[in-house]
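Repro:
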Amino acid sequence: MTVSAAVAEDMSLTARAQRVAAVAGRFADAVDRDGRFPEEAVAAMRAESLLGIQIPSSFGGQSASLQEMADICAILGQSCSSAAMVFAMHQIKVSSLVEHGAESEWHAAFMRELAARQLLVASATTEGGIGGNLRNSICAIEVEGDTCRLTKDATVISYGAHADVIMITSRAHKDAAPGDQVMTVFRKDQYVLERTVTWDTLGMRGTCSDGFLFKGEAPAEQIFTKPFAEIAAQSMLASSHLLWSGVWYGIAADAVLRAQAFVRAAARKSAGTMPPGATRLAEITTRLQVLKASILSGIATYEDAKADPDRLSSMAFSIAMNNVKLASSETILAIIDEAMMICGIMGYKNGTPYSLGRHLRDAHSARLMISNDRILGNTSTMLLMQKPDTSLLG
């Protein structure tokens, strides 16, 4: 391989993600222990220009595909779950810009700025009094002339105190119904945050998902022209479930690698006798492969549907994306639990090469990030009207 070819290969998305993962891994235990933002990993993302990769190349990005971003989520997830989730949540918000902002002069210019400056974008969709239902809002944006103002009791804004930008939902106006929502981009110098809830959790501690009272004022042109219902159905639903699943796959994959290392070490000591955990290892690698296939199938379904807005908004598509999230969030717990059984006390203890406590705690967040019970309820309602897809061709 020539020197120039080696340099080109080194700048691939995979290589850049692996360099970020190496940084994230060095600080993962400290991020978890102290419940602090993974600043080193995010600085590395900026240095590797990963925050703007989804932006179209015509706007200064790299037009990265959803599959490429999911793979980066998996690579980062094997090193630091919190850093991987920050990357995933950032890209979920960027997907709204990419899919719904290109026709707006302001949002198109903002995409160029995001790619150039590697801005970190956070989301504020949850609100006190709505029970985690992001498709409803109590607060309403006020538009006066060319200016908009918003006050929102945001019960969760992941890494809100560390973001450069917050994309926030509200009712379209004071007389709008709860489901008549818009989303607005606010820069850091256009809002103030008053912390109301502290993030002290079992896992995913480094996402720093505190609650805040948000007060912002910005030019009204920063409001997305498309209704939030359309944005949520056509980009956020799929990108959320698929990129989150990429993170969870990464957590499970690292657990499998630790279990494999444990079995190999045991095999070297057993003089040709198969270690007790070898059969369990074979079982969890099968589950991991099934999980991977489910995520890749979901990505393919989304890519096939992107050209058809009606299909993206259909019940069949929503059911398919919901099922990926449900399967991923349940499967990783089973995989990590079995890996713990393989590694035994060495997996249960902290500070060993086989420790799995952080993996297990982080993985438990998966069923709660949009509660599986809520998703199952929505899916069951849709199944009263929509026949399940039973073909192998999709």
